[in-house]
Amino acid sequence: MKEPRTGKSFRAAGDRIVRQESAAPSVVTRLLGAPAQAVREIRSDDDAWAVRLAALATLGQYDGLAFVVDEPLDMSQAYNVAGDPLADPVIRSVVDDLGRNSATARLPAAVQLADGRAADVLLVAPLVVSETCGGVVIAFRVGRSFAAADAVNASGVAELLALELARGLGMRRDDADRRQALALYELGRLALFGEDDEQVLQDALTILANGIDHDAARLWISRPDGSLELRASHPQDAAPPRLVRARDHGVLSEALVQRRVVRVEVAAPEPWVPSDARSLIVVPLIDSARPLGVLVLGRARWSYVAEDVEFAGVIGRFIARLVSVVTRAFTREGSERSRTPVAHPITEWQDERELLEELSSRGS
């Protein structure tokens, strides 16, 4: 009797195992393989920040994380934090002190988290985005405190946040520069090819409102008796008063007397204020050392920042020259109407090198 060939049997068994493994992965293969993760859809900036802050909270071993940035970004985001942490007066006081001394602070506080727990200690670290933009990072923990090494880790988290915020700030500034350059170009084109002088003023306000995100714009022209007359407005469906006296309204008087741009962070209900404006910029229109009126710009969604005020001064000088030409086309000796043709606006601006240089620099 012949002995069975064991080698061949083992090879056949191995072949069967290989064929079975190719059809259905083994338990070992499933355990060692890379886990499949569902791709999260990012639909807004809030979704993107939720992912970033969740990763940073895991990195720093925080139960909650939030940051607040001042203007020009003027934003705040939070991960696993219920409500606004700065609503607590103790936390607000620490944040204000941090802005003055730039030192990391740790304090006990009962802050409700989004997962139902309450953080009993938090760490506040400075956040520096640029020379003109800063804020704070607030880390929360439940049931355990922060050590000295956590202050160093919080600084690293703040640096990572600052890099992302600086990128967003640069993109916002690039977009603002493009919008401003386009608005100056459109105003220049309007001065060159505008035919109806009265319509030129209305079109100028429409350009400012649509091109630089102003929700409202009004142009008030000075009259010989010292009052201001409304000559153009955007939107036009409102029914504001046609005449106001600057001396009866402090902001108007301040802009005209001091000849500077005035920013109003919270607009009060005044007859000359657009009804839907939350924040205002009042720009004096000065030509040849004489006041021509004021340009009032308003926003309802967010407040104006320092960059908006600076550019409003440039626009004010541009609009002042346009108003000067238009009003002289209809006025003789301050009272009579005149039909005498006047020089084209661009001819009047041949000596305005500053405006032309501003237009050239922003357009490039």
Characterise the protein shown here.
This protein has ten helices and eleven strands. It has 364 residues and is of the alpha+beta class. It has two domains: 45-171, GAF domain (Beta-Lactamase); 194-363, 2-Layer Sandwich (Beta-Lactamase), CATH 3.30.450. Helix 5 (148-193) packs across helix 10 and helix 6 packs antiparallel against helix 8 (306-328). It is elongated, with a radius of gyration of 32 Å. Mean pLDDT is 78; it is low at 332-352.
Straight-line distance between termini: 99 Å
> Based on helices, strands and strand pairing, what is the structural class?
alpha+beta
Architecture of the largest domain, CATH level 2? 2-Layer Sandwich
Q: Helix count, per DSSP? A: 10
As a whole number of angstroms, the C-alpha radius of gyration is 32 Å
Going by CATH, the homologous superfamily of the largest domain would be GAF domain
- Shape call: elongated
CATH class of the largest domain: Alpha Beta
Features:
364 residues, alpha+beta, Beta-Lactamase, 2 domains
In brief, what are we looking at here?
With 364 residues, the protein is α+β, with helices and mostly antiparallel strands.
List the topology elements.
Elements lengths: L5 H18 L3 H6 L12 H16 L3 E6 L5 E5 L9 H13 L3 E8 L5 E13 L2 E9 L6 H46 L3 H15 L4 E7 L4 E8 L8 E3 L4 H9 L3 E3 L14 E9 L2 E10 L6 H23 L16 H4 L4 H11 L1
Antiparallel strand pairs: 1-2, 1-5, 3-4, 4-5, 6-7, 6-11, 7-8, 9-10, 10-11
